[in-house]
Amino acid sequence: MADSNEMTINLVVLGRSQTGKSAAGNSLLGSLDFESYLSPSSVTTCCSLGRSCRILGITRRNGCELALRVRVLDTPSYPHSSLSKEQVKHTVQSALAHHFREEGLHLALLVLRADLPLCPDENDLTIQFIQELLGPTWKDFTAVLLTHADKAEEAGFSEEAYLHRASSTLLSLLSSVQNKYIFLDNQKSIIKEERATVLRKLLNFIRQNNYQVLLKHDEE
């Protein structure tokens, strides 16, 4: 946050194949930085950093409007169709250290599909991976991004009804990260107003965490 009239937030997207990590990253950036398409194998094999343009109308400080810049690190999925757990972990840790070494990470976004149930085994695998990746304070720096929320809506579920019917596994996960979650409508995510709403929610999570950042260094 070098410029007093500007704020930068650093995000990383994590999750399984075909959950929409790269598409979610593009939605947050308002661009098409990351490759995203349907594939029978994992699409992303390395980390890449996307940067947004200056975004106005999202946040203010001391009564003055701040320009917001968003940086998103896209990552290979885990489990991955061609990379081992250690390969994915090393790749992501190295990228976090390289891109966010000075400023730190504000939030890791765990991307899940709202139109698919979260199974206990899948959840345990994901949580273990995030713990190893981010360390003991991972809960403070993790939010859940539920993609394909439009499909849940088409099935007649409001956000409240969806959570009422959600599995105990998902509810336990949301509770563990202090209910930091966002529903992302894949049909509307390219709309400016929808993106602004999501970014305001992310900023609120960061504010609730007192603007703390997670500093990651290269693993020995």
From TrEMBL:
The keyword Protein biosynthesis does not apply. Residues 6-220 form the AIG1-type G domain. Transmembrane segments: none annotated. Keywords: GTP-binding, Nucleotide-binding. GO terms for molecular function: GTP binding. It comes from the Eukaryota. PANTHER family: GTPASE IMAP FAMILY MEMBER GIMD1, GTPASE, IMAP FAMILY MEMBER-RELATED. Belongs to the TRAFAC class TrmE-Era-EngA-EngB-Septin-like GTPase superfamily. AIG1/Toc34/Toc159-like paraseptin GTPase family. IAN subfamily. This is GTPase IMAP family member GIMD1.
